[in-house]
Structures are given as structure tokens and as C-alpha cells.
Amino acid sequence: MTADNTSSGMLAGLESDRNQLRIERIETIPLRVPLDHVYAGSHYSMRNRCTIITRVYTSGGLIGECYNGDADSEQGAVVQILQEEMAPRLIGQSAWNVQRCWELMFESTRDILRDRGLVLQAMACVDSALMDLIGKAAGVPLRRLWGGYRDELPLIAIAGYYSDDPRAIDEDARAFQEIGLAGCKFKVGGRSPAEDAARVNRLRSLMGEDFVIAADANQGYTVEQAIRFARLTEGARLVWFEEPCIWSNDRLAMRDVRYGAGIPVTAGQSETSVAGARDLMVAGAIDVCNFDASWSGGPTAWLTVAGTASAFGVKMGHHEEPQIAGQLLSGIRHGTFLECFLPQRDPIFWGLIANRGQLVGGRYQLNLDPGWGVTLDQDFVSRYRTA
Asked: pLDDT per residue over 289-335, tens digit each?
């Protein structure tokens, strides 16, 4: 066979692959699961756990699937934007062209009279399902396509919610031990620095020296309060202090806490753009960026932030969403911890995924299934779907 014939054959094969992954339709399935009680952080509370399953169907029969986000009252708006604006632009496009699809969806963010966050959540749903298609077409887990740095991550729980029950911290500690978690991201910022420090120090005394503890103020403190809290918890050896300061001037405020308290600072989940995450790094405000792919345009945007963080010497986290964060964080060399909630706070992660990875020695072992590597329990879907 001549070189020309070989090249023609390769081009024909590539065109066949593109045609096999032509997008034919997009399905959305919103879920809402009532929680056992209201979970309160510094200045917010949650009564339901919600998500949206997105499926992208292609001409060759391959289906990309993922679930994203936790929008509750806004869930219908996210689905409407996805179905009425994004799906029509993507029908007929090749799923291989992820960047082009992302750009087509991004057009919907240009409406200045509505919440762009809803559009970015809709983009994330589709972008995630497209990534699943790419992994399945290649026959490998997505982390292998993104660098393949590791196959397991330490798993920590987001917990320590405020409660009038004096046994709440002790009960959380028992749950951490029973599940076998590596650590906890503990809620602070809703009470005085002294009260919150006492709660964190209590957890350290219960869990021993090897247990990872981070603090998450959800933008609850002033600079002075944040520094005071950090000094009162020096003995707890916090791995990071997340969103310590009130939102209105948080970039410079977090920089002051980082320099003044000498504690690693984490933020990024409240940014909805790559540029916003970049500016945190330029300002010297953070040591770890926990940009949320499901709130901010999907894995395509997250991977761009991860590349930027590498240039700044900033580590990467991901705000919850372990079904997505596992592949993202394990693919790169500067990933940190995989976050989950305890089962009663997130029945979706613990109930929807039929093939969750094994937890061994506090480390979540990712499976070798292609794409996101997630198989959904259809009985759970049927029980909690809202439309």
C-alpha cells in the first residue's frame, strides 16, 4: 500500500469516527431527594439534595452520561436552558469536537439580563456527558486521557454542620471512623472564632493526629476573625482554611489571612469563570483552588484552571461532586483531596452510583471503567426523578 493510500485510509477512518459520534439528541433527568433534616453552614442551609442526569445520544449508538450539580429551586431553569438553547445548537455536531461544542454553548452566557450561573450549570451538564463519550469511545477512564497521575485519592467528608445537639461532633467522628475516611472538611464561620475553634479542636481530640482536618467558613469571617480562628486552631494542624472571608472583598482579604495567619487558604468554588480563578492566583490569595466544574462550565473549564494553577504553583481541589472530581483530580499531578458528604447528607452519591470505588485505608480507589466510570442505579433514578 502506498503512503497516499495509507493516509486516505486513516482520514476515512477518522471521518467514520466523527460520524459515529454525531450528536442526535440530549436527555435530561432531574432528581430531588429530601434530606433527613436541614443542614446549616455559616449562612446557608440545605433541605434537599438535587442533581441533573444528562445523556447525550449519538448516531453510532454510544451514549455519554453524567450527573451534575445540586441546584434545587433553579433546577427547572437549568434544564430549560439546556434543552431549548444548547441542544438545538449541538444536534449534528461531533462529540469529538468538545471545544467547539463548548464554544457553541457559551453563546448562551451573553444574555446580560439573567443569571449566567444557570447557563454555566447547563453547560457543565452537557460538557460532562460529552467527556464521558470521549472516554468511552477511547475505551479508557478519563483520568488516563488527562494525565493518568494516580488511580486513587484520599477521601474526606464535608461535615461539622451546626446543630443544637451537643453530641453532633461525636456522632460525625463515629461516622468518619465507621466509613474509614481520611479526613473531614469542617464547617465554621457561623459562630465566634472561639466557639468554632473549640468545635474543631474537639474533633482533633476525637480523631487523633493522622486524621486530615480542613476548615470551611463559607465566607463567614472578617479578616480579623479569620486570623483569630487560625491562631486558636494551630494545634489542630489544619490542612487548609477554605473561603475564610466575607465575599465583598474576599480576594484581598484572603491574601491578608494567608500572609497574616500563616495557614494555607483555599477558594475557587464561588468563581464561575476561568478568569476569576486566575485572579485569585494573581492576587496571591490561595494555595489551593477548588474550582467547581459543575457550577462553572464543566470539565473543559476546570482543566483550563488546573493548567493555570500549575503555572502559579497552586494545588487543585474540587468542590464536592466526587463522581466528577475523582477523574479530574487523579489525572493531574497537583490534585489534593476528593470530597464527599456523609450518606445522610448526600444520598445521591451513596445511592445513585451502583459501582462506587472501594475505600481502602482512607483512599478512594477509582475503577477502570471507561469515561467517568459511573454506572447509575436505575431504581434510584425512577424513585427520585422529578420530571
From this structure: 999 999 999 999 999 999 999 999 999 999 999 999 999 999 999 99
pLDDT value at 59 more than 50: yes
Mean pLDDT score, 30-50: 94
Residue 54 has pLDDT above 90, yes or no: yes
Predicted TM-score (pTM) of the model is: 0.94
Sequence letter at residue 236? A
Q: Look up residue 91 and give its DSSP letter.
A: T
Number of C-beta neighbours around residue 354 at 10 A: 12
- Whether residue 372 contacts residue 324, with contact meaning beta carbons closer than 8 Å, is answered with yes
DSSP state of 49: E
Beta-strand runs (E) in the chain: 23-40, 45-58, 63-68, 152-159, 183-187, 212-216, 241-242, 265-267, 288-289, 315-316, 338-341, 358-360, 363-365
Residue 99 CB: number of other CB atoms within 10 A? 9
Q: Is the Cα torsion angle 243, 335, 352, 356 positive or negative in sign?
A: negative
CB-side neighbour CA atoms (13 Å) of 319: 24
Kindly tell me the sign of the dihedral angle through the C-alpha atoms of 265, 269, 270, 274: positive
**177, containing H or E segment:** helix 168-179
Alpha-carbon distance of 147 to 139, in angstroms, equals 15
216 three-state secondary structure: strand
Residues in Cβ contact with 63 at an 8 Å cutoff, skipping those fewer than 6 apart: 55, 56, 57, 133
Pairing of strands 23-40, 45-58: antiparallel
Give the chain's end-to-end CA distance (angstroms, integer): 56
Distance separating alpha carbons of residues 259 and 220, to the nearest angstrom: 19
The alpha carbon of residue 58 and the mean position of all alpha carbons in its chain are separated, in whole angstroms, by: 26
Query: What residues contact residue 328 under an 8 Å CB cut-off, 6+ apart?
Result: 142, 143, 146, 293, 299, 302, 303, 306, 316, 318, 335
Phi-psi region of 297 (alpha: psi -120 to 50; beta: other; left: phi over 0): left
Helix (H) or strand (E) run with residue 201 in it: helix 193-207
